[in-house]
Give the backbone structure.
Amino acid sequence: MSDQIADLKQQLKSLNSEYARIKEIPSEKRAAFGRDLNLKKQFIIDQISTAEQTALNSAVEALDISAPCAPNQPLPTFFTADRGSRHPLMTELDRVIEIYQLMGFDIVESLQLDSEYYMFDTLNFPKDHPARGDYDTFRTEDDFIPPAHTSTMQNRVLRANKHNLKNGRPIAVAVPGRVFRNEDVDTTHEHTFYQCEGVYVSEDCNLSQMLGILRSFFEHYYGQNLKIKTQPGYFPFTEPSLEFLIEKPQSLGGKPGDYMEMLGCGMIHPNVLKMADIDPDKYRGFAWGGGIDRLVMLKYNLSDVRDFESGKLRFLKEFK
Ligand code: DAH
């Protein structure tokens, strides 16, 4: 115990004899006397606790958190960078984005939590229409929607870029994003996957331009010329609506005439343009949306879409 603390404790002790004197004090002064003594006592107690804390602090050896570690000691067992790798879907998504950027598209990522309004209302799904049921939509308890497609972004993209049209420029935006569907999972269906949407609006665009853009995209992505075809489809947000197919490249295990559906597309429905305050008598647009997982599966001849979300190292290491 330091001298200072011993001294303070002695002072505290001697206060006790002063408390004993309280009976001798005339009654009218007793209260003031007692108050003074209490204040003195508290003052000494505070000083003791400060001195004790200081003594304690100096007794513990300080830890120097800025000290460098000894360079030749074995490293702690962190995960070193060479044990991890980029997820193949992220690498491929970058390639997809790059191709659309080279074509002049702006890129906007889709939201992972959205609303009924953007999922259905802005996309010309009539209220209470069975088509709303086609999308196996998840809902949170608060009625938010983890989006079932990247088309949820169409209205936002149209509104945000409307000024282009007034300046004589088109709206050209690609929207990559993560989407979710409440469906039975098997080798070709997953509850969580990636899509990329394309939206294009100008005064005079047409379907053949859209097919040209899509062909060019797929030919760049697979690095070879491709045969394409379309077949009729149905989406409330396009009119006409098409499904877009490519012939599976032979280098990727396809046989001639072996077509694979890659995305849904069509001319943007006038009601969708109206919902974004774009005059459908003056402007028109086309749009498309397709799965990224499927695109990548064909490129690497993968057979089970579930591997992407599985976290299986054996699978992920193949892409290191
Ligand atoms: N959102 C559709 C789906 O996930 C795909 C789609 C079809 C997107 C037509 C579009 C479109 O933009 O115009 O099934």
